[in-house]
């Protein structure tokens, strides 16, 4: 099945719309994830599948896919993919503790925004409000960090240069 990811949000008075067609099919590696409070701005959307992109060229990105409302699916990036700019161990453990997640079971995901700027794409990640996943219980929450070092629109320029993105017809 082909779906269109439409991530529309406003950040700093700038409207961003991600509109990418991707193939989505059931796969044994899909992880069912329940967000009891949903994502900020999408509190009614609580059931997701964490999926790999079928095309390897999009690795390490993943899709937080909403099977009930595919338009409310999101591109995410595991924190460990950021080579040195993931949460500190202290911040990660503090966040895990807040949700009662064992340190070994926590996984951090960043929501990614992809903005078309002509013949290239500007890719940013929201480091300020990551998704905190309890891998043992398949539960997740979006969490706002109080640390001012974490940006809402952290540029992924290095990743942008190495991963070629395109729109499928």
UniProtKB/TrEMBL annotation:
Keywords: Bacterial flagellum biogenesis, Cytoplasm, Translation regulation. InterPro entries: Flagellar_assembly_factor_FliW, Flagellar_assmbl_FliW_dom_sf. It comes from the Bacteria. Gene3D superfamilies: BH3618-like. The keyword Cytoplasm applies. Coiled coil: none annotated. Pfam families: FliW. One of its GO terms (biological process) is regulation of translation. PANTHER family: FLAGELLAR ASSEMBLY FACTOR FLIW. This is Flagellar assembly factor FliW.
